[in-house]
Design a protein that fits this description.
alpha/beta, 9 strands, about 45% helix, seven-stranded mixed sheet, about 325 residues
Length: about 325
């Protein structure tokens, strides 16, 4: 609201405000889109690698807060020092349905179409979790190093989807640990796909999938989490001519969306033609969303939620 009221002072246009965020920032943008009172405050949105959060009631949030304080030896926040508060280790990165600002679960809001209708641009990177690939990461997330144990672990989550889904993952990776790391990226892919589906009923949706990123930290990570925002701002100090060219291609499209709310020659995502733009190694191409029917069935059956809830609850407990 402050930006809408004051942007002209800084040379901006109050009728051309774009909210943009990556990862948790994309979640923040999505939250703003789900608050109907914001309807006149911005004009379009960019969501880069969004993921749906767990949303709690006020009662549950209060119970968790009280438990965290007790576990940290704090009787009441009223008398707690800043030093005491900083010792609290429990995870509070969740939304709360307070029936005032936030009135429902995000997914319910999307399904009901009870959000602000405007053009959006949404996408993910092909290898979201690859930049975190190290021994500790694999240990904490329970990444298995042999195929036998991996199949036993994941078949219980994916059930009848397991064989077909693994075939998709194996098209890009052959190492079993790398396949599992790629699998974790679906926490972002499935969220982005749900946003594409529900927003496209009412608004223009520009969907993308980035497959290219430069080598960082001495190894090739694929298009890791955040590599798209690096291409947008060109803030990686790398001497890589292919990366520079790819960045320019990606950046030109994003700037066009920011300025005009559309991208010439970029087909929008629709129910009857689920177009998505692939950015890959000096080029861009528009295709229909690959393996949509399988992935949407998995989403509708809650397969990914079961997996991610289990994995990340164990991660937090460790």
């Amino acid at each position: 609201k402050w930006i809408s009221e004051n942007i002209e002072i800084f040379g901006g246009d109050p009728n051309n405000i774009v909210l943009s965020g990556q990862s948790n920032g994309a979640l923040s943008v999505l939250v703003q889109l789900c608050i109907k009172e914001n309807e006149e405050l911005f004009n379009r949105a960019i969501l880069m690698s969004p993921a749906f959060p767990e949303i709690r009631s006020v009662e549950v949030a209060k119970q968790m807060s009280d438990k965290a304080l007790i576990n940290s030896g704090i009787r009441s926040l009223e008398y707690a020092s800043l030093k005491d508060i900083l010792k609290i280790k429990d995870n509070f990165m969740n939304l709360v349905i307070d029936d005032e600002l936030f009135k429902d679960d995000i997914l319910n809001i999307l399904k009901k179409g009870d959000f602000i209708k405007m053009p959006i641009l949404v996408g993910t990177c092909s290898d979201e979790f690859s930049i975190y690939d190290n021994f500790l990461f694999r240990y904490f997330l329970g990444i298995k190093s042999d195929e036998k144990h991996s199949e036993k672990k994941y078949r219980k989550y994916f059930g009848n989807y397991y064989d077909e889904f693994m075939m998709i993952l194996k098209e890009k990776k052959d190492d079993i640990s790398q396949i599992q790391i790629k699998m974790l990226g679906y926490i972002f892919h499935k969220s982005a796909l749900q946003i594409m589906e529900y927003f496209s009923i009412y608004s223009d949706v520009y969907a993308y999938y980035s497959e290219f990123a430069p080598t960082v930290f001495g190894k090739k990570n694929g298009a890791y989490h955040g590599s798209d925002i690096s291409m947008l701002f060109d803030n990686l100090e790398v001497e890589d001519s292919i990366y520079k060219l790819e960045s320019n291609i990606f950046r030109d499209d994003i700037i066009s969306f920011i300025k005009y709310g559309k991208i010439d020659g970029y087909p929008v995502y629709k129910k009857d033609s689920r177009n998505i733009r692939i950015y890959s190694n000096k080029s861009k191409k528009d295709i229909e969303y690959p393996n949509f029917n399988l992935l949407w069935s998995m989403i509708q059956d809650g397969v990914f939620e079961k997996l991610f809830d289990d994995i990340f609850s164990k991660f937090r407990n460790r």
